């Protein structure tokens, strides 16, 4: 009897299916199933205790949530890029808004080197809602009550980052060995290119920009052990590719909607299972999903 493939993903069925509905605690069923598993399929957003259980089992698992659970958010992403030695915009980290404004106001050389205006990013939030372009310390202080420094799955604080006017914003969505690329163009008088901020999605762009963005995202993927992520890459006016952020729960619209994304996800999981020497047909769409 082959060892089972265990699925915690609500859209995928395998030999054993265990859902964490309503944040139920892990129990003996989970320990027994993962302990005998040939492979474990985790949900796209994974709890820390389930990740620990998967690690303890010794079985391969997909996706790997290690970065999401330790370096999520703007501050965590910055630390990851810095520690891995990967290119990113010049960035400074601060514990709170006042310390950042005070450092800028005092004329600290490292802050002055960022130039003005600069980009202020709170640790938490997404879809561009916690990102601001500010011209001076007073404008930065004016973000009190708006800029969120707390992050649920990563370190809190904020970053000040060099602004690159005229840069190109590209999203590289990684699904195991596949990469889907699209450009995001900001609307007039808006520096953020996020679709939720009125940005426009463009599927085709210059091949040299595509190659630079995918190449940098693949470097991050290999260095950080990522297999599911939306990686935001900036191509500066000088043609340099820089890492902006990692998104672990990204929108489906750019990929054709929920059902298209799940179909792509299933195919990626099957390719991953084949790489583990397991029969990909043992995983199929959940009856109430795809």
TrEMBL record:
Keywords: ATP-binding, Nucleotide-binding. The keyword Cell inner membrane does not apply. SUPFAM superfamilies: Glutathione synthetase ATP-binding domain-like (SSF56059). Coiled coil: none annotated. GO terms for biological process: SOS response. GO terms for cellular component: cytoplasm. Pfam families: RimK. It comes from the Bacteria. InterPro entries: ATP-grasp, ATP-grasp_RimK-type. GO terms for molecular function: ATP binding; metal ion binding; ribosomal S6-glutamic acid ligase activity. Residues 78-274 form the ATP-grasp domain. PANTHER family: BETA-CITRYLGLUTAMATE SYNTHASE B-RELATED, RIBOSOMAL PROTEIN S6 MODIFICATION PROTEIN. This is ATP-grasp domain-containing protein. It comes from Desulfoferula mesophila.
């Amino acid at each position: 009897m082959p060892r089972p493939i265990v699925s915690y993903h609500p859209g995928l069925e395998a030999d054993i299916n265990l859902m964490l509905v309503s944040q139920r605690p892990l129990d003996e069923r989970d320990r027994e199933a993962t302990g005998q598993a040939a492979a474990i399929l985790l949900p796209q957003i994974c709890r820390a205790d389930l990740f620990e259980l998967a690690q303890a089992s010794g079985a391969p698992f997909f996706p790997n949530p290690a970065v999401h659970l330790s370096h999520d958010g703007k501050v965590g992403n910055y630390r990851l890029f810095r520690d891995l030695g990967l290119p990113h915009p010049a960035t400074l980290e601060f514990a709170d808004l006042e310390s950042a404004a005070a450092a800028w106001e005092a004329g600290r050389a490292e802050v002055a080197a960022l130039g003005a205006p600069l980009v202020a990013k709170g640790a938490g939030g997404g879809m561009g809602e916690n990102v601001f372009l500010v011209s001076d310390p007073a404008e930065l202080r004016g973000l009190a009550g708006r800029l969120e420094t707390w992050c649920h799955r990563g370190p809190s604080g904020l970053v000040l980052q060099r602004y690159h006017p005229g840069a190109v914003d590209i999203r590289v969505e990684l699904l195991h060995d596949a990469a889907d690329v699209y450009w995001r163009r900001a609307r007039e008088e808006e520096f953020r290119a996020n679709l939720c901020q009125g940005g426009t999605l463009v599927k085709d762009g210059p091949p040299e920009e595509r190659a630079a963005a995918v190449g940098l995202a693949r470097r991050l993927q290999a260095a950080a052990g990522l297999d599911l992520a939306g990686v935001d890459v900036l191509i500066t006016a000088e043609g340099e590719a820089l890492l902006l952020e990692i998104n672990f729960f990204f929108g489906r619209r750019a990929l054709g909607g929920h059902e298209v994304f799940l179909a792509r996800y299933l195919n990626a999981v099957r390719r991953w299972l084949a790489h583990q020497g397991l029969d990909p047909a043992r995983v199929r769409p959940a009856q109430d999903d795809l």
